[in-house]
Amino acid sequence: MQNRHLVGALAALALTASPVLAAEKPIVIGVPVGLSGANSVVAPSVVQAAELAVEEINAGGGVLGRPLALEVADDASGAAGAQKAFDSLIYQKKVDVIIAMETSAARNAGLPAVTKGRVPYIYTSFYEGRSCNKNLFVNGWVPEQQVPPVIDAFSKDKGAKTYFLIGSDYAFGRGMLAFTRGYIEKTGGKVVGEEYLPMDGSDWTAIISKLKEAKPDALVTSTAGGAPNVTLTKQLRGAGVSLPYANLAVDEGTAKSMGADAEGIYLSASYVTGIDSPQNKAFLAAMEKKFGAGLRTPNDLSVPQYEAIYLYKAAVEKAGGTESAKVLAALPTVTATGPRGTIGMSKQHHAPLTMYLGQVQADGSVKVAGTFKDVDPGEQCPKLD
Q1: Considering Cα of 26, then 28, then 29, then 31, what sign does the dihedral take?
Q2: Which of 224, 221, 244 is nearest to 233 (CA)?
Q3: Which 8-state DSSP code applies to residue 320?
Q4: What is the residue range of the signal peptide feature (predicted)?
Q5: What is the structure's pLDDT at 8?
Q6: Contacts by 13-18 with C-beta closer than 8 Å and gap 24+?
Q7: Where are the domains of the chain?
Q8: Which of 273, 247, 243 lies closest to 262 in space, CA to CA?
Q9: Which end of the chain is more exposed for a tag (fewer CB within 10 A), N or C?
């Protein structure tokens, strides 16, 4: 119920920031996000990050003298909900842009409306890669950036040669693990099991039994994020599974919400709260000031949302307005500096990113074990060059 109230309150957010800006027509950002369903664990942090970016930009005079406003819609973390959310935002609310972190199922379901409505879409989630559309830009990581640090560390530091893979049965889970299998085999390892559960599944008992029978050296999982991460990890710990475990879908906020169950998990991310930079420290301080005790842990899904709004601002300013064709032409040429550093979606509508290999500690924080600068996303959408 609280999330529903949040949706209704955000539309007017920008208009109260400045009496001068309030006289101008707002630039409306559509945010379809999983307030219910699998992503409901992380969605509130994404909305908070968007709120802060809009507040900061409006306090600085807006974009070309116009305020930003948010329209948030619940996509229910899936395809059916996304179709309704995108249709509402694009055709009824007449948003100027879509900026959102979503499941791959939701993204794919929303793309037809984006294409038909000719609306720019900045996708702020890490994902399985190779989603290509002239209207779509991505500032989250892809497998080429995220998987190698994990597998290389397990091979070199843990002596892992055999792996068991577990995923959610949809585009992200299967796409991530297909790349992971290929990388494991290319680097001399072997996959001894690969199992999937439906995206909304919560009973991992049978799969965990197969994991135990296979006796691998290491475990790699790729679920729908949020709730599936929580249920799978809890059941793994309850079953006494203690082998090296990398989760390709867990964000720092979700890991913290798991409590003791998350301790020891390895993750590879483009953002961790421990990044030691003036920009990240300023961002964390601003989030703490704005949300106080209600702050959700900033993470690898919410920070790209924050930065994407600044990327859109830069593109609109370069384009001289919100006309979609001009904004789309500007988006691959602009950058924004935020908690992750300076980001630009210059490589086939994707972003080179610094990646961090980390391990979850007992208090839920992430200890950085390795840093990989400006990792190229590889060949994602060559036809868009």
Answers
A1: positive
A2: 221
A3: T
A4: 1-22
A5: 43
A6: 13/51, 13/54, 13/55, 13/69, 13/70, 14/54, 14/58, 14/62, 14/67, 14/68, 14/69, 14/70, 15/67, 15/69, 17/55, 17/58, 17/59, 17/67, 18/58, 18/59, 18/61, 18/62, 18/67
A7: 2-141+275-352, 143-274+355-384
A8: 247
A9: N
Q: What is the DSSP letter of 298?
A: P
Residue 295: predicted pLDDT: 97
Phi, psi of 321 (to 5 degrees): 165, -175
H runs (alpha helix) in the chain: 2-10, 19-22, 43-59, 79-87, 104-117, 143-157, 171-186, 205-214, 227-238, 252-258, 278-291, 302-319, 324-330
Q: What is the pLDDT of residue 224?
A: 82
Alpha helices, DSSP H only, in 66-124? 79-87, 104-117
pLDDT at position 11, please? 44
Helix (H) or strand (E) holding 338: strand 336-338
Residue 106's alpha-carbon distances to 72, 113, 373, in angstroms, are 15, 12, 30
Assess whether the region 2-141+275-352 and the region 143-274+355-384 belong to the same CATH fold.
yes
Structure tokens at 369: 């074990």
CATH architecture for residues 2-141+275-352:
3-Layer(aba) Sandwich (3.40)
| 3-state DSSP helix/strand/coil % of the chain, to nearest 5 | 45, 20, 35
Q: Which residue has the tokens 């550093």?
A: 341
Query: What is the pTM assigned to this prediction?
Result: 0.90
CATH 3.40.50.2300 fits 143-274+355-384, yes or no: yes
pLDDT along the chain (385 residues), means of 10: 45 50 87 94 96 98 98 97 98 98 95 98 96 98 96 96 96 96 98 95 97 98 86 96 94 86 95 95 98 96 98 98 98 98 97 96 90 95 88
- Decide: helix, strand or coil at residue 356: strand
301 DSSP assignment = T
Is 300 within 8 Å of 252 (Cβ atoms)?
A: yes
Q: What is the pLDDT of residue 23?
A: 66
User: Which pLDDT score, from 0 to 100, does residue 14 have?
Assistant: 46
Closest to 287 (Cα-Cα) out of 44, 100, 66, 62: 44
